[in-house]
């Protein structure tokens, strides 16, 4: 026997003497034997308990062996059971038909005990090897999928780490001179007021000392310089806002789980993505509507959650661009490009973030592939729709959910739910 448990053989033959002979023969060899005297009884016996192998006679009344074989092969649960035909028919056509139906062997009657036992053992060994091969293939497929997912995540993490380091470095280098400019602008405004008063006093004391053309230029400078310095102050503050957004996004030097304000994270990303929201040759400016609810601070890996929101927002922009770049007979059919952000506290333990766009939508035939590693709707080398890493960050790392609904030319809505706290984090 191939193992400690006896292999089960089902003998199907309408001649009782043949069944009796084969049963005694196979029991002597250590097989567990069951019997069926018709095709219908054979099908019921197989459904009740799957045998390891079937010895099947061809010529039987009501339902012949060919029909029994066909029905077994049509059923997913029984199609892999090896079938050996036993028949007095020795014609080539009968053998060819048997193999076409899926039989693994054909034994002509009369046969010797040694021959039939040898053929049975051979087919059982092949069946066992096939099962092992299927099992190993499943293990390899699982391992390959795991490697794909982890490779995608590692690549993305390396990209994000490099980007975070670059952003942190740039923010630091910009912050110092901007702070210097901002601080000194206030002093410059004070100095200007002092100089302006001195000039006014000088002109009052000596009205004719400065010719009229020069006096007009001085008046223009005195009137324009405050607004000029005010614009410079606004510009410095704007740069400071961008620098702060860069710092918020990079979370440089921070690691592990911490409680963050998700609204602050979303706002910083919108500041960084503002250049992509501006009008282009194909479309008007993308409007962003924020409907923020009152959210509790959320304990999470701040860098990773920021990465998720960045991916979703960039995909929303890409989707809108794709819609406006595609030819549409009536441009008025396009709605104003818009991204809508909505947050709400679902309950004390869970928050929800919704990011919806008015873009091209996701076709039905690829929606099931959105979270596949390396899947992309973009050309090679471009950042595509694939959100495998984002999905793993939300579901596996943060025990939340990431779902979406979409329709072609009607936009897409992604919904992220996150627990307020993470296990082991107080």
Query: How far apart lie the N and C ends?
Result: 60 Å
Gross CATH architecture of the largest domain: 2-Layer Sandwich
CATH superfamily assignment of the largest domain? Answer: Histidine kinase-like ATPase, C-terminal domain
What is the number of strand segments? 12
**Which series of helices and strands comes N to C?**
EHEHEHEHEHHEHHEEHEEHEE
Largest sheet: 5 strands, parallel
Number of helices: 10
The fraction of residues assigned to DSSP E strands is: 15-25%
Tell me the count of domains.
Answer: 3
Q: What is the residue-mean pLDDT, rounded to a whole number?
A: 84
CATH topology of the largest domain: Heat Shock Protein 90
- What's the overall geometry? rod-shaped
CATH classification, class level of the largest domain: Alpha Beta
Residues in helices, as a percent range? 40-55%
**Class inferred from helices and paired strands:** alpha/beta
Strand order of the largest sheet: 2-1-3-4-5
Rg is 39 Å
Structural features, described:
This protein is an alpha/beta fold. The chain has 3 domains: about 10-110, Response regulator (Rossmann fold, 3-Layer(aba) Sandwich), CATH 3.40.50; about 140-255, no CATH class; about 270-420, 2-Layer Sandwich (Heat Shock Protein 90). The protein is built from 10 helices and 12 strands. The chain has helices at about 15-30, 40-50, 65-75, 90-100, 115-205, 210-250, 260-270, 275, 300-325, 390-395; strands at about 10, 30-35, 55, 85, 105-110, 255-260, 285-290, 300, 340-345, 350-355, 400-405, 410-420. The protein has a 5-stranded parallel beta sheet, with helices on both faces. The longest helix has about 90 residues, at about 115-205. It is rod-shaped, with a radius of gyration of 39 Å. The two termini are about 60 Å apart.
């Amino acid at each position: 026997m191939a193992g400690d448990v006896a292999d089960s053989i089902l003998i199907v033959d309408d001649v009782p003497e043949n069944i009796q002979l084969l049963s005694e023969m196979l029991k002597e060899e250590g097989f567990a034997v069951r019997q069926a005297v018709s095709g219908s009884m054979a099908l019921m016996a197989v459904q009740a308990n799957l045998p390891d192998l079937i010895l099947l006679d061809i010529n039987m009344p009501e339902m012949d062996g060919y029909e029994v074989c066909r029905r077994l092969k049509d059923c997913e649960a029984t199609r892999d059971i090896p079938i050996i035909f036993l028949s007095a028919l020795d014609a080539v056509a009968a053998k060819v038909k048997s193999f076409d139906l899926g039989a693994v062997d054909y034994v002509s009657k009369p046969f010797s005990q040694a021959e039939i036992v040898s053929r049975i053992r051979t087919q059982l060994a092949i069946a066992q090897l096939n099962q092992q091969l299927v099992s190993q293939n499943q293990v390899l497929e699982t391992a390959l999928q795991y490697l794909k997912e982890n490779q995608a995540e590692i690549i993305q993490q390396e990209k994000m780490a490099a980007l975070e380091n670059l952003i942190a470095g740039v923010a630091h280098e910009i912050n110092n001179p901007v702070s210097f400019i901002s601080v000194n602008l206030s002093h410059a405004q004070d100095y200007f007021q002092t100089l302006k008063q001195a000039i006014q006093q000088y002109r009052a004391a000596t009205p004719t000392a400065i010719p009229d053309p020069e006096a007009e230029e001085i008046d223009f400078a005195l009137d324009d310089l405050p607004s000029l310095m005010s614009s410079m102050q606004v510009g410095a503050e704007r740069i400071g806002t961008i620098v702060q957004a860069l710092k918020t996004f990079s979370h440089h030097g921070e690691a592990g789980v911490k409680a963050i304000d998700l609204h602050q994270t979303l706002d910083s990303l919108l500041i960084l993505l503002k250049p992509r929201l501006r009008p282009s040759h194909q479309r008007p400016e993308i409007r962003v509507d924020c409907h923020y609810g009152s959210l509790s601070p959320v304990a999470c890996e701040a860098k990773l959650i920021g990465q998720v929101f960045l991916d979703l927002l960039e995909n929303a922009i890409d989707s809108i661009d794709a819609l406006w770049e595609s030819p549409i007979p009536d441009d008025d059919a396009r709605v104003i490009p818009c991204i809508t952000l909505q947050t709400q506290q679902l309950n004390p333990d869970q928050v929800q973030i919704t990011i919806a766009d008015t873009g091209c939508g996701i076709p039905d035939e690829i929606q099931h592939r959105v979270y596949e590693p390396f899947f992309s709707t973009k050309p090679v080398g471009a950042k595509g729709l694939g959100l495998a890493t984002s999905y793993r960050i939300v579901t596996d790392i943060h025990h939340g959910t990431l779902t979406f609904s979409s329709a072609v030319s009607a936009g897409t809505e992604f919904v992220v739910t996150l627990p307020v706290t993470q296990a082991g984090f107080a």
